Write a sequence for this structure.
């Protein structure tokens, strides 16, 4: 089933229950104001306090470092977004990613289950870190909760705004960068574990034997000729042994040319389309994984279960890394209401009065927002020329 149907079913089910049992849910801290569903609780404040009180000096030191790192990423992300205007019509750099759903114009497809788990890690570490630093800085937390905007999930920690505004600038910046720093930290941990599995454990027992098609996209022509599960061995007579050689071969493809693909189930030829994210490249419409097989000399009965465990685990770790890094750095863009906008505002307050930095932050927020919206539209509907 297409992932979009799961979201439609969930939308109908959740909002039907919310509307029918609105009075009962209100008694348990749930606010039902379509399209926003919000649940507030006080239960986790004790847990956040324990984490904050266990090592307050560490949290302050780490987030002081986080201010420097986050400022660097804020500048890099803003520069990359502005630079993307140069190739906007051919290769938009901003696209939607929805677990289990093929988004037009997006080169990325996130599996439904792995994607939802990864997004849950993004929300949990991001908001808990904001809460921990709020308590480290002696700011009361009014509530903690979950929200649903239509069908888009979210989480929040609500520090006391009056107390927050009275903090020193460094203290406020530590709170603002805490969420993204937690995402970047988790991304690094997931990447390291994934690399240990893929670079050390897997090569000891398994070897690459081409790449296997795990998904065919509707915006390419391969879907009309090939099927999932096929192992690609060569593209236009270029041998494909692993993911690196597959990427090298696909980088030679041009739009509208005929591609010849050799697989374990026969040979296939069809015309290429343009890559949605770079229209100078040809596009088959296939997404692949390395085709790992147990190397000669190893007991298949012993290592086959290991293969089934390590590969899904490695994939899950990749999506935890990818989404935490992508969302964590996106959140550092210098635009409000993102944390990067608040960081920029506090940094500018060191060198200029409020009457000067407020218009700058407002302009940056508007400018960044326009680029993002235009990039999304171009990616979804295609360039107008």
């Amino acid at each position: 089933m297409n992932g979009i149907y799961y979201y439609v079913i969930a939308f109908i089910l959740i909002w039907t229950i919310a509307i029918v049992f609105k009075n009962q849910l209100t008694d348990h801290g749930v606010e039902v104001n379509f399209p926003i569903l919000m649940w507030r609780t006080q239960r986790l404040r004790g847990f956040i306090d324990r984490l904050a009180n266990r090592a307050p000096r560490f949290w302050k030191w780490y987030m002081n470092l986080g201010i420097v790192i986050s400022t660097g990423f804020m500048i890099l992300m803003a520069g990359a977004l502005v630079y993307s205007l140069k190739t906007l019509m051919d290769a938009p750099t901003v696209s939607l990613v929805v677990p289990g759903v093929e988004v037009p114009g997006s080169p990325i497809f996130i599996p439904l289950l792995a994607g939802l788990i990864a997004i849950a890690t993004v929300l949990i570490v991001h908001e808990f870190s904001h809460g921990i630093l709020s308590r480290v800085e002696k700011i009361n937390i009014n509530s903690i909760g979950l929200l649903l905007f239509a069908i888009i999930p979210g989480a929040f920690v609500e520090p006391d705004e009056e107390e927050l505004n009275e903090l020193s600038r460094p203290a406020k910046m530590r709170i603002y960068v805490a969420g993204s720093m937690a995402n970047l930290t988790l991304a690094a941990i997931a990447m390291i574990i994934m690399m240990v599995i893929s670079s050390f454990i897997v090569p000891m027992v398994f070897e690459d034997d081409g790449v296997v098609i795990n998904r065919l996209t509707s915006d390419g022509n391969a879907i009309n000729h090939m099927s999932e599960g096929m192992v690609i061995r060569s593209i236009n007579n270029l041998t494909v042994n692993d993911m690196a050689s597959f990427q090298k071969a696909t980088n030679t493809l041009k739009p509208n040319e005929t591609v010849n693909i050799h697989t374990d189930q026969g040979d296939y030829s069809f015309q290429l389309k343009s890559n949605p994210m770079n229209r100078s490249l040809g596009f088959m419409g296939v997404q692949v994984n390395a085709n790992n097989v147990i190397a000669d000399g190893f007991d298949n009965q012993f290592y086959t279960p290991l293969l089934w465990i390590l590969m899904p685990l490695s994939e899950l770790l990749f999506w935890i890394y990818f989404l935490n890094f992508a969302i964590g750095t996106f959140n550092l863009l210098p635009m409000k209401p993102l944390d990067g906008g608040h960081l920029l505002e506090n940094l500018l307050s060191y060198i200029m009065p409020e009457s000067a930095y407020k218009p700058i932050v407002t302009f940056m927020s508007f400018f960044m927002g326009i680029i993002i919206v235009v990039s999304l539209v171009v990616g979804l509907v295609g360039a107008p020329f």
